[in-house]
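Researcher: Here's my situation. A collaborator sent me these components and asked whether they could plausibly form a single complex. I don't have experimental data yet, so a predicted model of the whole assembly would be a useful starting point for our discussion.
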Amino acid sequence: MSAGTIHGVGLGPGDPELMSVRADRLVRSATHVAYFRKAGRPGRARAIVEGMLAPDAIEIAMEYPVTTEIPLDDPAYADCLSGFYADVSGRLRALAEGGADVVVLCEGDPFFYGSFMHLHVRLKDHVPIRVVPAITGMSAAWTATGMPVTWGDDVLCVLMGTAPEAELARHMADADALVVMKVGRNLPKVRAALDAAGKLDRAWLVECASMDEERVIPLAQAGDRKAPYFSIVLVHGRGRRP
Amino acid sequence: MSAGTIHGVGLGPGDPELMSVRADRLVRSATHVAYFRKAGRPGRARAIVEGMLAPDAIEIAMEYPVTTEIPLDDPAYADCLSGFYADVSGRLRALAEGGADVVVLCEGDPFFYGSFMHLHVRLKDHVPIRVVPAITGMSAAWTATGMPVTWGDDVLCVLMGTAPEAELARHMADADALVVMKVGRNLPKVRAALDAAGKLDRAWLVECASMDEERVIPLAQAGDRKAPYFSIVLVHGRGRRP
């Protein structure tokens, strides 16, 4: 029996109509569908494909043992996640070796800060694996603002809100256009870094881009708002435009 | 009569199956389809949708008066393009005011270094306009390399090969992951800047990502290769990976 293929399928930013034609086809025809989720939650990736799966599709929920309970820089965090990824990779590998094709649902684009990467690195030398790129959350975010993000020779810098404030501020000062992901509880730090870089007045907070709950707010007016983890902060470039 | 809507529809990197479900639907049902092209060429955006248009769809080819004949920094270049964008915006506006919905075909993502932005800025205050985001060429490029582009808190910097070499080298040295677009004739400059930043040995040249002609080459082995204008140079990040 030949091995099945693991498909890392990017679902895009959340609106099911923003899935690619290929992703739509793979999801609807899948016999085995795997997805990450926080224990006790339905799962954001699974929610995007609600109503699309075949009635007899076998679902594999991969439940994170930890998300924000342990600080990112605590070695226990990496150990815990590493064991988890090894475990679920083993389950998917066994399915593929048994001949099953498995569609792994990925929010956003799988190879752009995606959880799927941690499966990919553990599976790629053992079973066939294919990746379907997708519309990123940041594309949906700048589209939601109704303004192009980059013009001419603008330099775009993509930053994680989890990085140290001084590092954020340095990059923010040096680039023309900015995207900050993983904002959530880091919002006050992100705001302070933008202020230090002199760009707070041009920044936008975009929550739930492309989804029903989409909100676009000038960051300076966001106050003490609790931003969802997947919020994105944007600064538009102002380069050459004939 | 109510005005029609101008739809800026991102088609993604080139593979028609990587169009979004929404883009696919809008393109197939369009009554009026507009697209940029170089005079005398079929047009790259138009080529992506070959075979998808309704038989009676009205096509509006918007032919660039100039592409690389005049240097980017020559004021005549901006004047020439500005007049062109004003002219074609006027044609699309007249169609919309006459009640027609117009689908403007856009390679890549419309608001990410896209030509459509120059129509959008001239039309948005006059007629209804909607934008469909898309998979970027850079997403297709890093997917083609078979390696994730960013991990953990990696900083990603997106640069244009048209920028000055010193500026390229400075940003290349300061970021973890790199994307360089608009490579083409700028390839020797991009290579020199990567060498100065100490990252040439980790760089990849990706041509025609997602298309039949897709090629992935270590940049240090690309020699004097004439890279197509839409080639992308990539350096992968090496951040936290549990």
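Model: Some features of this prediction you could bring to your collaborator: The domain at 137-235 of chain A is CATH 3.30.950.10 (Methyltransferase, Cobalt-precorrin-4 Transmethylase; Domain 2). Chain A has two domains: 6-132, 137-235.
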